[in-house]
């Protein structure tokens, strides 16, 4: 099973400079530290909102938009799934990194131990793929890039966080400004 850093490297490679909304916690810290881009919107202290914020961006423009949620944050903001399905943005892909734990909160287990997230995304009307290895993740993301959405890619990853990842202490207003400028929104 791949770790989160490996999954994030694949995501970064496929997504490139497309807008990417990133959930809070270790996911944001690890992506910012290893693959930071101005086109990433890191939602600091905003658990469960990446899917919804990504939807708003997809509906407001003509960009291909990606959003990353962890299993815990998706379950916290589960109401975003039927809204995604109902609005059906063709340029939207939700990426769920599922490790069955709140890795940033002392590895506390999530309900993903008992709920199949891919079934939830599919039931909401998202074209869903599941990946457990880097090559499967790459293929699923490339397929999502070339298909009308909304799409979901649920990637099963190992638990835990990467060691020695620094805190993401950027001013949220500065993160938002860089992100808006990457979209060419002034």
What does this protein structure show overall?
- This is Phosphonopyruvate decarboxylase.
- InterPro entries: THDP-binding, TPP_dependent_decarboxylase, TPP_enzyme_TPP-bd.
- The chain has 186 residues and is of the alpha/beta class.
- The chain has a single domain, classed as Rossmann fold, CATH 3.40.50.970.
- 42% of the residues lie in helices and 18% in strands.
- The protein is built from eight helices and eight strands, in the order αβαβαβααβββαβαβα.
- It has helices at 4-15, 26-35, 50-60, 71-76, 80-87, 117-123, 134-146, 172-183, and strands spanning 20-22, 40-42, 65-70, 92-98, 101-102, 108-109, 127-131, 151-156.
- The strands form two sheets. A six-stranded parallel beta sheet has the order 2-1-3-4-8-7, sandwiched between helices. A two-stranded antiparallel sheet has the order 5-6.
- Helix 2 (26-35) links the parallel strand 1 (20-22) and strand 2 (40-42).
- Helix 1 (4-15) crosses helix 2, helix 1 packs parallel to helix 7 (134-146) and helix 3 (50-60) runs parallel beside helix 5 (80-87).
- The protein starts with a helix and ends with a helix.
- The model has no long low-confidence stretch (mean pLDDT 87).
